[in-house]
Amino acid sequence: MNIKDTPWFESKPLLEHPKYFVFEDKYPVTKGHLLFVPKEDTELHIRECFLAAYEYGLDLFKKEYCDGFNVGQNVGQAAGQTVMYPHVHMIPRTDGDCADPRGGVRGVIPEKQKY
């Protein structure tokens, strides 16, 4: 899949970097849920997206705009990927946004989240 064939390419990015775009998630999990989408499907561009998503989340956290954040990527249908072009999610979290956040990303398999 080419980036021009993705659903994000239909909307205006919030930010354009030389190696990636930043878009609002069409179906946000929380307020401020963003997608970091590499301009090219290369390891270098995907790494830049992870780093940028992490740094952005950390900046929000340090400025106390959120109480925490998740950064992640679904790779392959078995992992829940629906748009088959690489992209990184940055999801701001706030205290109380779910009943029990312990286990975080382990919640992709609900019975394994709590340990």
Structural overview:
With 115 residues, the chain is an alpha+beta fold. The protein has one domain (3-95): HIT family, subunit A (2-Layer Sandwich), CATH 3.30.428. It contains 2 helices and 5 strands. It has a 5-stranded antiparallel β-sheet with strand order 1-2-3-5-4, with helices on one face. It is globular, with a radius of gyration of 14 Å. The model has no long low-confidence stretch (mean pLDDT 94).
Fold topology:
Elements: E1 15-16, E2 20-24, E3 34-38, H1 43-62, E4 68-72, E5 88-93, H2 110-113
Antiparallel strand pairs: 1-2, 2-3, 3-5, 4-5
Number of strands: 5
- Classify the helix fraction into a percent range: 10-25%
Number of discrete domains? 1
SS content category: alpha+beta
The CATH class: Alpha Beta
Would you identify the regions where 5 or more consecutive residues have pLDDT less than 50?
A: none
Radius of gyration: 14 Å
Order of helices and strands: EEEHEEH
The CA-CA distance between the termini, in Å, is 38 Å
Question: Mean pLDDT, rounded to whole units?
Answer: 94
Order of strands across the widest beta sheet?
Answer: 1-2-3-5-4
Oligomer: single chain
Strand content: 15-25%
Q: Which keywords apply here?
A:
115 residues; HIT family, subunit A; alpha+beta; 21% helix
Question: Care to give the gist of this entry?
Answer:
With 115 residues, the protein is α+β, with helices and mostly antiparallel strands.
